[in-house]
Design a protein that fits this description.
The complex is a heterodimer of chains A (480) and B (222).
Chain A lengths: L7 H9 L2 H23 L4 H17 L1 H14 L3 E5 L2 H14 L4 E4 L3 H5 L2 H7 L3 E4 L2 H8 L16 H12 L7 H18 L2 E4 L3 E3 L4 E6 L3 H7 L3 E7 L3 E2 L5 H13 L6 E5 L13 E7 L3 H6 L14 H5 L1 H6 L10 H11 L17 H5 L6 H15 L6 H16 L3 H14 L4 E2 L2 E2 L7 H4 L4 E2 L6 H8 L6 E2 L1
Parallel strand pairs in A: 1-10, 2-3, 2-4, 4-7, 5-8, 7-10
Antiparallel strand pairs in A: 5-6, 6-9, 11-12, 12-13
Chain B lengths: L1 H6 L4 E2 L9 H5 L3 H15 L6 E3 L2 H14 L4 H13 E3 H7 L12 E5 L3 H6 L4 H8 L4 E3 L15 H4 L1 H17 L4 E4 L2 H13 L5 E4 H5 L6
Parallel strand pairs in B: 2-3, 4-5, 4-6, 6-7
Helix pairs in contact in B: 4-5, 6-8, 10-11
Classes of the chains: A alpha/beta (480), B alpha/beta (222).
């Protein structure tokens, strides 16, 4: 839960002023756009897959209650335990309790945005439980006491020089230059952690209601280790992660790997159905699945924005977003960034504190085109904008008041042709104060925000209406 | 536009009462205000049987794609929306459909690059039409810039709310225009053009900024 208002303007100013970051962002987004494009163009029935996936998600979110009950039944049947958490606090408390009851000292975690959302690490560590992220990117972020910069690639804002210095400080090793050497150091450190862990925590990419299977998609093998090596496995899932039938998994796995990283398939896909069974030689003794609501059931009720819950967290929208490309992940102020952050953060948090985010988009729609479940981002953003405008009342928010008044005047003028023409002529008269070579500069507030960096076109001295009347045929004339 | 249409032998009418489609308010979340202006649009254009042609894709998209949302509780308005939506065209889309009838005598000579406006491209599916029209001109060469389909950063009130972010996007766009080696950039949306031209003039960049109609009917130095 966020506590302070997210100030997108301030946050993005910090990012815009950092040329090193800009370079990293351009490189990263160029690369991921290209690799996604290549992977997708190899699938003849891509559009059909997207439609099918969306159809499944629509069905799931519409009947979320019954699917959750079915999933609980299936997980229980195979020997797992399901815990229902209505919010972040409850979810963290559930995990801390499981750890306490089993005298857990050391936890290894695989990458999970749901656990970022509930700030699980903080809770575990404050309860004296050592908790280590084992995804390389997340591990780096944790070592820096930082937050993920992207939902798939959390440390893209760090250069290899940054990481080399970090590892040298933390582990007393030389400042290696080669990424492979750096990875080896992390690997060695993490192996120790895996060996001593009593509990593994993971997220969930998909949970199959009919079989109670959870699917975890990754490239480093750390999630496989974290979910099989320790004695206890706790998986945390946002309640929207359900897929009704096992056979439908293939659709989502095809879409996810290609959309996220441009791979045909990720290196590891783990399908986990309950804890170790009799006669099996490995796997955890206990399997817990935490259902995290944290605002999701409210979103499911809204016809206008429900599709926000169809998201499979691939990050494709982020990689094509021209705004993210400029401002990076931290500008969005919370766990989720880019277009998905702009629509989901305001719905999972106080709308007043997150009111900047629905406006942090030029509505270009590039996100909608790449989304594997066809989320209509502009539609959701517009609906959230309307909510901000209608629910920010009074003078509390001054720009809001000025803007509302401005649009009220605008709507009056623009629905009365007489005043519209008069306004045009008035502007054409007043503009001489700012005019320079048929363009305007140094306009007063709020247009100063435009003219600080750019010129504004001057109003024509003679409105088009008059040219039309003089040159062509009379009022409402027809040109033949 | 008038020159292009005259060359196509079309009769043109200009309803004097027209103002705006309401998009600026709609996209900023002010639905009531948007509805008021959109209603005026329907009053002016709602009964027209002729094709309605607009020089900006985003206005056309507003009418075609978003009026149904805006008027969803008003069946009477919705029936007018349906009629208007089937009659309204973005300029390049309209001209391209009737390309056999065009006689273009643009005197422009040189290399141009095309910027896709987001709403024309992604909400109206317009991409090849303006390019084909440009290529059909004698003495004009079309060169593609890097990421022609990337947003120029305008986004309506976005450019006022977050001018620094918008500027950073625009900077990338003008860099990519300059790197294409073209002498002019052409687009089909007044918003993008105003934005791009704004920085091009401020920085005195050696590139011309044209609406497609201006290029097609260019009558400059012969």
């Amino acid at each position: 839960m966020i506590t302070e208002r997210i100030d997108f303007k301030k946050n993005s100013a910090e990012a815009l002023g950092n040329p090193k970051l800009k370079k990293a962002l351009v490189n990263f987004t160029d690369r991921s756009r290209a690799s996604r494009q290549k992977a997708v163009s190899g699938v003849f029935e891509w559009e059909e897959l997207r439609s099918e996936a969306r159809g499944i998600k629509e069905e799931v979110i519409k009947n979320l209650d019954s699917y959750l009950l079915e999933l609980e039944k299936s997980v229980t049947r195979v020997g797992g335990r399901v815990h229902w958490a209505k919010d972040a606090e409850e979810a963290s408390a559930i995990v801390v309790n499981i750890a306490r009851e089993n005298n857990v000292r050391n936890v290894v975690k695989s990458k999970s945005m749901a656990t970022e959302e509930i700030e699980l690490n903080k809770h575990l560590i404050s309860n004296g439980i050592n908790t280590v992220e084992t995804d390389l990117g997340e591990y780096i972020v944790q070592l820096c006491d930082d937050h993920p910069f992207h939902i798939i690639t959390p440390a893209i804002h760090k250069t290899k020089e940054d990481i080399s210095k970090l590892f040298s400080e933390k582990f007393g090793v030389p400042e290696y230059e080669e990424p492979q050497e750096l990875t080896n150091i992390a690997r060695k450190e993490l192996r120790e952690k895996f060996l001593s862990a009593d509990m593994g925590i993971s997220g969930v990419n998909f949970a199959v209601a009919e079989t109670g299977t959870i699917a975890i998609v990754e490239n480093e093998g750390n999630a496989r280790l974290a979910t099989t090596f320790p004695d206890i496995h706790v998986a945390i899932m946002g309640i929207e992660k359900i897929v009704p039938r096992f056979e439908q998994l293939s659709i989502f796995l095809s879409l996810l790997a290609r959309s996220a990283t441009g791979q045909k398939s990720s290196t590891y896909v783990s399908l986990i159905t309950g804890p170790k069974r009799e006669g099996e030689s490995d796997g955890p003794r206990q399997f817990h699945l935490v259902f995290l609501d944290n605002g999701r059931s409210e979103i499911a009720k809204s016809e206008e924005t429900r599709e926000s819950l169809y998201c499979i967290r691939c990050g494709a929208c982020i990689n094509v977003c021209p705004v993210y490309r400029q401002v990076g992940g931290h500008s969005y102020g919370w766990v989720y960034s880019g277009p998905i952050g702009a629509i989901i953060t305001p719905q999972l948090n106080d709308p007043q504190k997150t009111a900047d985010l629905p406006f942090a988009s030029s509505l270009c729609g590039a996100c909608r085109d790449v989304c594997p479940v066809k989320i209509d981002f502009p539609h959701v953003l517009l609906s959230l904008r309307q909510k901000v405008v209608e629910e920010t009342k009074g003078r509390a928010n001054l720009p809001g008041f000025i803007e509302k008044t401005a649009f009220r005047i605008w709507s009056f003028v623009f629905s009365k042709p007489f005043y519209y023409n008069l306004a045009g002529k008035t502007m054409a008269f007043l503009q001489c104060l700012y005019q320079k070579d048929n363009e305007l500069q140094g306009l007063p507030y709020p247009f100063s925000k435009w003219t600080r960096e750019k010129n504004f076109p001057a109003f024509s001295r003679k409105p088009f209406r008059e040219i039309w009347k003089e040159k062509y045929h009379g009022r409402n004339g027809v040109l033949r | 536009m008038l020159r292009v249409f005259s060359g196509m032998g079309l009769e043109i009418e200009f309803p004097q009462n027209q103002t705006c489609c309401g998009q600026p308010a709609f996209n900023s979340g002010h639905r009531k205000e948007a509805e008021k202006v959109a209603r005026h649009f329907l009053d002016v254009f709602g009964d027209a049987d002729e094709a309605i042609v607009c020089p900006s894709g985003s206005c056309v998209s507003m009418v075609r794609n978003y009026y149904t949302q805006l008027f969803r509780d008003d069946p009477e308005a919705l029936s007018r929306v349906e009629k208007v939506s089937s009659n309204i065209y973005e300029f390049s889309e309209f001209v391209f459909q009737r390309k056999e009838t065009i006689s273009l005598n643009s005197t422009y000579r040189g290399r141009v690059t095309f910027h896709d406006s987001c709403h024309a491209l992604r909400e109206l599916g317009i991409s090849s039409q303006p390019r084909e029209l440009i290529k059909s001109l004698n003495g004009v060469e079309l060169v593609e810039m890097k990421m022609a389909d990337a947003c120029c950063g305008f986004g309506g009130t976005f450019s006022i709310k977050y001018p620094e972010v918008s500027k950073s996007m625009l900077q990338e766009k003008t860099d990519s225009i300059m790197n294409s080696g073209a002498e002019a950039v052409v687009s089909t949306d007044m918003g993008c053009l105003m934005n791009i031209k704004g920085l091009v003039s401020r920085k005195k960049l050696p590139v011309k900024v044209f609406h497609l109609a201006e290029l097609l009917a260019f009558e400059g130095l012969k």
